[in-house]
Specification:
single chain, 2 domains, about 400 residues, Glycosyltransferase_61, transferase, six-stranded mixed β-sheet, alpha/beta, Glyco_transf_61_cat, glycosyltransferase, glycoprotein, about 25% strand, Rossmann fold
């Protein structure tokens, strides 16, 4: 099999292609623009998102939908027309694609956010209707030359853990092999969210974002025409890219390298220095350290430069990513803020205070070292809210938990 790839898919972008391509597949670069062959390459990449019977269905019917434990995704290699500005967003299949006969009303509805077992998240995620092409489909207002990927910034978007886990990692898994030749179509659009992650999103797509729906601003009523589309995002698990799951060949380390590159973070391992730098993630509403100042003072007493990062400091992704990238130790209580470990340089240390009996799995997502402290508790319940920690760093730390404001 041979793919003759035409500009604007540049040679440097091929460095991100997975290493497990079939040996029979050769890739050459042509100076001629050959849309048909480019479309063949795009269809080949989209087929990697599904396997088994779903891939056979995609080849036969031009569309396939799969339901994973936390996400639903529909892939079509044929043309679609996406109607924006109304609810629900409608995706019309206009290339003779055939939806499964057992679908009610001959349509499929997908909530394109990767947390479908959470009722609260789904209540904040607008559905997208995938419809068979009508005899008289809506006329195109805008024609696009690349496939669409439809996803939502509803759900729990705005919380840093969920931004990374529910949106950015699934978006990376779904679009990485397309090498920015994709158009992002966003439902439940929030301008602040897109601005916050603009540098990351611009690496995933070289095209303007299409606003399909928004609760905070009016979405323009238009019909966008695409040569192919993906509705929903691939999801492999909490903060996880499984290289053996579709699309295949993408690891958690690949995502870490991608997001660090997007933010222009220094990739060199943390260099040894006389005074290691510790950043303590501060919490003020729940799971807070009552003796936070003592912890920082103790760190400084053992020749560590200590700094406290508040929730306000974490709002600027670029600025805080650079701060974490420049530290030697990131410390905090188990929670969303610890997701900032993706910005740690190789060789840095993550110190996480966890509740007694916590059995969460530790994944090597940062290239750093992980230290955890179990904490003794006055109660067998898991409803702990605050901790008071004593003892030394980095030796064993004991914590006394409190509920509410009582000690």
């Amino acid at each position: 099999m041979q793919c003759n790839i035409s500009p604007p898919l540049r040679l440097w972008k091929l460095q991100l292609l997975p290493h497990n391509w079939p040996q029979s597949l050769s890739v050459t670069i042509s100076n001629d623009t050959v849309p048909e062959r480019t479309d063949q390459f795009t269809r080949f990449i989209l087929r990697r998102l599904v396997r088994g019977s779903a891939r056979r269905q995609l080849s036969r019917d031009g569309v396939a939908c799969i339901s994973d434990p936390e996400s639903d995704i529909c892939v079509t290699t044929g043309p679609v027309r996406i109607s924006t500005g109304a609810s629900p967003t409608a995706v019309y299949l206009t290339g003779n694609q055939r939806l499964p006969l057992e679908t009610p009303d001959a349509s499929v509805r997908v909530r394109p956010y990767a947390r479908k077992t959470d009722r609260v998240a789904m209540s904040r995620t607008s559905p997208v209707a995938i419809l068979p092409g009508p005899p008289d489909p809506p006329q195109c207002d805008v024609d696009h030359s690349v496939p669409a990927v439809v996803f939502s910034t509803g759900g729990f978007a705005g919380n840093f853990f969920h931004d990374i886990n529910d949106v950015l990692i699934p978006l990376f898994l779904t679009t990485a092999d397309l090498h920015s030749r994709v158009q992002l179509v966003v439902t439940d659009y929030e301008g602040y969210w897109v601005r916050k992650y603009r540098r990351v999103l611009s690496r995933l797509s070289g095209h303007d974002i299409v606003v399909a729906s928004s609760s905070s601003s009016a979405a323009e009523a238009r019909v966008h025409c695409f040569p192919a589309a993906v509705v929903g995002l691939k999801y492999h698990g909490n903060l996880l890219c499984n290289s053996t799951s579709p699309p295949g060949g993408i690891s958690t380390a690949d995502f870490r390298n991608f997001i660090r590159s997007s933010l222009s973070l220094d990739a060199a391992p943390a260099a040894a220095r006389e005074l290691p730098v510790l950043v303590l993630l501060s919490r003020k509403k729940s799971r807070m350290l009552l003796n936070e100042e003592e912890v920082v003072g103790l760190a400084e007493s053992v020749w560590v430069q200590g700094g406290v990062a508040t929730a306000e400091a974490m709002r600027d992704v670029q600025e805080f990513a650079e701060a974490v990238n420049g530290c030697d130790v990131l410390m905090g209580v188990h929670g969303a803020g610890m997701t900032n470990m993706v910005f740690l340089r190789a060789g840095a240390v993550l110190l996480q205070v966890v509740p007694w009996g916590w059995t969460g799995r530790r994944r090597r997502t940062t290239g750093g070292r992980h230290g955890g402290w179990g904490c003794s508790t006055w109660s067998t319940t898991s409803g702990w809210r605050r901790a008071r920690c004593t003892s030394s760093i980095p030796r064993t730390t004991r914590c006394w938990w409190t509920r509410g404001g009582s000690t």
